[in-house]
Structures are given as structure tokens and as C-alpha cells.
Amino acid sequence: MRSRAALDSPLAIRRSAMDLLARREHSYSELLGKLRQRGAPTEAAEIELDRLVEDGLLSDARFCEAYLYARSQRGYGPARLREELRQRGVAESLVERTLAEFDQDWSALAQRVFNKRFPEGRASDAAERGKQLRFMQYRGFGGFQVD
């Protein structure tokens, strides 16, 4: 674990941010939070993150695209992804634009997720049907109709 004094210089802050970005894309807000946890002063961290944005090394748009792709591949729908991205500090307008441009057939994905979780199909019992709908809502498919 790094000591609080480890991120007392702009170079140390930039190096720490680059280390995090080498592992995966991060949103600006996420990266700022991680740098602050590691002891970087907020103002100094913001300056370095702004430089990373200018250099094209940090991009909320790129993070948003990568996040949508990875999470949709794991069976999560647009409502859940929208909320997760909002929690990670991505601007709502960017999330909406990226979702609109994202090449994903959400209905087909919802059907695949449903069929995988409930291979027996639509439940005849109202309580079971409720469980199925709650599962689909939890996964981010709010308007999904159980066939």
C-alpha cells in the first residue's frame, strides 16, 4: 500500500494515473477518486487528469464505450448500464448518446438472458412470473415482457 506522501508531486500523480489506465479504461471521476484515495490533493490530481485528457490518454467517451461493450456481453441491459455509468461519474448526455449509437439489439439480448436463466420458459404461476420480471428488471431490461 502506498503512503499518503507517495503522490505529492505532479509526476507521481501522473504516473499513478497512467498505471491505473494501463489496466483498464476509467472515467475522469473514477480516476480522480482513486488518486484522492492514494493521497493526491484534489486540485493537483485534477490538473494532471486534465493533461491526460488533452493528451488523449483519458476519455470518458472511450470509457463509456468499453464499459457498455463489456457489461452488455455479460448480459446487462440499458437501464442498469445507464445507472452504473451515472454512478461512475459519466455525464448523462454522453451516456445517452453512447447508448443510442451502441450497436446492440437489446430485445435479443434480453431474450437470451431470459432463456439462459429460465430455460423452462415463461412461468404459469403469477408469483414465479413476478420473480422472472424482477430478475429482468435487475439486469436492466425494464420493459421486457415475458413471452
TrEMBL record:
Residues 108-143 form the RecX third three-helical domain. One of its GO terms (cellular component) is cytoplasm. Residues 59-99 form the RecX second three-helical domain. It holds the Pfam family RecX_HTH2. It is found in: Cytoplasm. Residues 15-52 form the RecX first three-helical domain. Keywords: Cytoplasm. InterPro entries: RecX_HTH_1st (IPR053926), RecX_HTH_2nd (IPR053924), RecX_HTH_3rd (IPR053925), Regulatory_RecX (IPR003783), WH-like_DNA-bd_sf (IPR036388). One of its GO terms (biological process) is regulation of DNA repair. Belongs to the RecX family. Modulates RecA activity. HAMAP family: RecX (MF_01114). This is Regulatory protein RecX. The lineage of its organism: Bacteria, Pseudomonadati, Pseudomonadota, Gammaproteobacteria, Pseudomonadales. The gene is recX.
